[in-house]
Design brief:
The structure holds two protein chains of two kinds. By secondary structure, chain A is mostly beta strands. In chain A, about 0% of the residues lie in helices and about 55% in strands. In chain A, the strands form two sheets. In chain A, strands 2, 4, 5, 9, 10 and 11 form a six-stranded mixed β-sheet that branches. Classes of the chains: A mainly beta, B mainly beta.
Chain lengths: ~110, ~120
């Protein structure tokens, strides 16, 4: 099954700065999704990018997808303290999601 | 819209007992529900896929007799951890997709299970 894998980073940034995290995967996909998880809580869907798309925006989020390199990036612009969370990418190959390891982002007020 | 609830949010039980976790789609009908397990500071691991009215499909390595899944209606799926052991202690999360077969999964808030 597909396996999304983030670079195992723990980002600590100042409020207002941008946060970038990456994800790589190994097999073909239909789409790739990014989720946010606050500590001890469920996941919140952030954005979905299809395999035929290269870039997508949603508010302060920007996602890129490079299917030739099997990688994706999530950029959060003008970060806020409320953005502090873990961020997971998940690849979707047959309506089943395979999650990456996650990035812990801490935004310092 | 697209709200998924789980009950209970937290449960502590003794070793050897069984625990049932409910997953409900509150404002949509969910043809497919998924059950995940998450260990501290780790990613989500898919345990099984459940379609309404049919048997669940379990991922490799997940014991179907240990983790009983029932999806009796379009709004409810249950996961029963049978004869729980301390190693079953984990965070269990469900998700659901709607009858339109959407690509987005809507996640519940999770259930933290602690087996003593």
């Amino acid at each position: 099954s597909q396996q999304g894998e983030e670079d195992p980073q723990a980002l600590s940034i100042q409020e207002g700065e941008n946060a970038t995290m990456n994800c790589s995967y190994k097999t073909s996909i239909n789409n790739l999704q990014w989720y946010r998880q606050n500590s001890g809580r469920g996941l919140v869907h952030l954005i979905l990018i299809r395999s035929n798309e290269r870039e997508k925006h949603s508010g302060r989020l920007r996602v890129t997808l490079d299917t030739s390199k099997k990688s994706s990036s999530l950029l959060i612009t003008a970060s806020r303290a409320a953005d502090t969370a873990s961020y997971f990418c998940a690849t979707n190959g047959n309506n089943r999601l395979a999650f990456g390891k996650g990035n812990q982002v801490v935004v310092i007020p | 819209g697209a709200v998924v609830s789980q009950h209970p949010s937290r449960v502590i039980c003794k070793s050897g007992t069984s625990v049932k976790i409910e997953c409900r789609s509150l404002d949509f009908q969910a043809t497919t529900m998924f059950w995940y397990r998450q260990f501290p500071k780790q990613s989500l691991m898919l345990m099984a896929t459940s379609n309404e009215g049919s048997k669940a499909t379990y991922e490799q390595g997940v014991e179907k007799d240990k983790f009983l899944i029932n999806h009796a209606s379009l709004t409810l799926s249950t996961l029963t951890v049978t004869s729980a052991h301390p190693e079953d202690s984990s965070f269990y999360i469900c998700s659901a997709t709607g009858t339109s077969g959407g690509e987005t999964q809507y996640f519940g808030p999770g259930t933290r299970l602690l087996v003593l």
